[in-house]
UniProtKB/TrEMBL annotation:
<dbReference type="GO" id="GO:0007165">
    <property type="term" value="P:signal transduction"/>
</dbReference>
<protein>
    <recommendedName>
        <fullName>Rho-GAP domain-containing protein</fullName>
    </recommendedName>
</protein>
<dbReference type="InterPro" id="IPR047165">
    <property type="entry name" value="RHG17/44/SH3BP1-like"/>
</dbReference>
<dbReference type="GO" id="GO:0031256">
    <property type="term" value="C:leading edge membrane"/>
</dbReference>
<keyword id="KW-0343">GTPase activation</keyword>
<dbReference type="GO" id="GO:0098887">
    <property type="term" value="P:neurotransmitter receptor transport, endosome to postsynaptic membrane"/>
</dbReference>
<dbReference type="GO" id="GO:0005096">
    <property type="term" value="F:GTPase activator activity"/>
</dbReference>
<dbReference type="Pfam" id="PF00620">
    <property type="entry name" value="RhoGAP"/>
</dbReference>
<dbReference type="GO" id="GO:0048786">
    <property type="term" value="C:presynaptic active zone"/>
</dbReference>
<dbReference type="GO" id="GO:0098886">
    <property type="term" value="P:modification of dendritic spine"/>
</dbReference>
<dbReference type="GO" id="GO:0043197">
    <property type="term" value="C:dendritic spine"/>
</dbReference>
<dbReference type="InterPro" id="IPR000198">
    <property type="entry name" value="RhoGAP_dom"/>
</dbReference>
<dbReference type="InterPro" id="IPR008936">
    <property type="entry name" value="Rho_GTPase_activation_prot"/>
</dbReference>
<dbReference type="GO" id="GO:0035021">
    <property type="term" value="P:negative regulation of Rac protein signal transduction"/>
</dbReference>
<dbReference type="GO" id="GO:0014069">
    <property type="term" value="C:postsynaptic density"/>
</dbReference>
<dbReference type="GO" id="GO:0032956">
    <property type="term" value="P:regulation of actin cytoskeleton organization"/>
</dbReference>
<feature type="domain" description="Rho-GAP">
    <location>
        <begin position="1"/>
        <end position="111"/>
    </location>
</feature>
Length: 111
């Protein structure tokens, strides 16, 4: 839904949706019943639900164990070497985390 209606929206992940709309959307997602039309005009609600989902994961998506490796990789100045280091860290993610990461970043060509 974000790819279809939200990628051109300025401040997509910075602008907070209304609390009541976010709560209603999360409840709909939890029940598996979602009226797509109701939320297609509000990409901020969809982005807010995604941010909430990621915050509420029992373990960080990129894992606590790999934290130092992510930080080291992000500090590499050479872009090619940085990308190689980030890809190497990705390969160490548990399968569920890697699949989730790929899903969240699927709109980027390198993922």
């Amino acid at each position: 839904m974000l790819l279809e209606c939200g990628m051109q929206e300025e401040g997509l992940f910075r602008v907070a949706p209304s609390a009541s709309k976010l709560k209603k959307l999360k409840a709909s997602l939890d029940c598996g019943v979602l009226d797509v039309q109701e939320y297609s005009s509000d990409p901020h609600a969809i982005a807010g639900a995604l941010k909430s989902y990621l915050r509420e994961l029992p373990e960080p998506l990129m894992t606590t164990e790999l934290y130092d490796e992510w930080i080291q990789a992000s500090n590499i100045q050479d872009m090619d070497k940085r990308l190689q280091a980030l890809m190497a860290a990705c390969e160490k993610l548990p399968t569920d985390n890697l699949n989730n990461f790929r899903s969240v970043t699927s709109h980027y060509p390198a993922c």
